[in-house]
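User: Show me a protein chain along with its predicted structure.
Assistant: Here is one chain, sequence first, then structure tokens.
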Amino acid sequence: MTTGPMEGIRVLDLSIALTGPYAGALLADQGADVIKVERPGIGDIARWVGVSVNGMSSLYLVCNRGKRSIAVDIQTPEGADIVLRLAARADVVIQNFRPGVMDRLGLGYDDIKALNPDVVYASLSGFGAEGPYKDRSAYDTVIQAYAGLAANQADPDDGIPVFLRQTAADKVTSLFASQAITAALFARARGKGGQHVELSMTDAVVSFLWADSAANEVLLDSDHTQNSSFVAGFRPMRFTDGWGIVTPTSDHDFSGMCKALGAEGYDDPRIATIAERIKHRDVLSPVMDMCYAMAANMSMAEATKRFEAERVPFAMILTPEELTQDPHAVAIGLFEEADHHVVGRTRMPRHPARFGGTPAKLGGASPALGEHTDEVLAELGLADKVADLRAAGVVA
């Protein structure tokens, strides 16, 4: 029985890979009934990307939890009709194909709005539906390059662009998409009706990046003496047995870090406050160098004890595997383990938002390809046609 805040909401997920599917998975965690439409034979391409067990990848497992899979060839008239039937009863439709693709299949916003005026139809794309780049194919690294993430991660010393070793652009877009869909449903509940929600990866990543990493581009009258990203100068500390990071933002943080590490000179008036530290980087630099040098002679355990005593914002750098065994992560139940009918043992982080009145939880097992085809078609009143549709290759 679902109890989440999206209970009773029906979502039709026509998307592939990560951007749309992950947004749908978050809605499923929150109680929505999500039906995923996949291509017969191969299904969502994400099933085959990265580490997999028994033909199901970790990527697919995480991004499609709690959904029901129906394998339908939407390029056939009969398949498109099945999708239209599902869309007619859906609250939300999600698709992430290039602009115009769904329109050509008769499954665009206008087609579905004609059957379901109150639908919230979310179109996700790389560069958006307008402009000279709208027809370009876009994957995560393409958007990392175009929207500024790769340049933002470049080493200040050599300027070589660095790509995040994760699909950050996809995931950022997923988060914006889930929020936008929820906002559109809220507007509908207030009598505003359904609507078309368009979101490009470019818009999502630029909005995300500019919050803190394009300061000189936001403040056009700045003197450009500082890096646009105020965290650009932070670097990890090496201890005798590992790595960590300290983030000395406030004056208390800065003095506490220096005290914890035994560094001197931090009480110099020229660097005693954040305003003065900005003006006197030449004085600050040797003090910071001393902090790093002192840390190199200290174990992670000793540094942890000292940082905690001074209430310094810090963390030791953990691998994903180390994080699963960390005492804090264990104490708060950050990860949930389960047995999956296809891949066996699994471990995933819990749903991040804690709802006091309508608790969310990780959706059920991610589906095998077409696992729920018969079930969903029966709900549409097509139980007597399943055999013929399967024989014709329309469904699987």
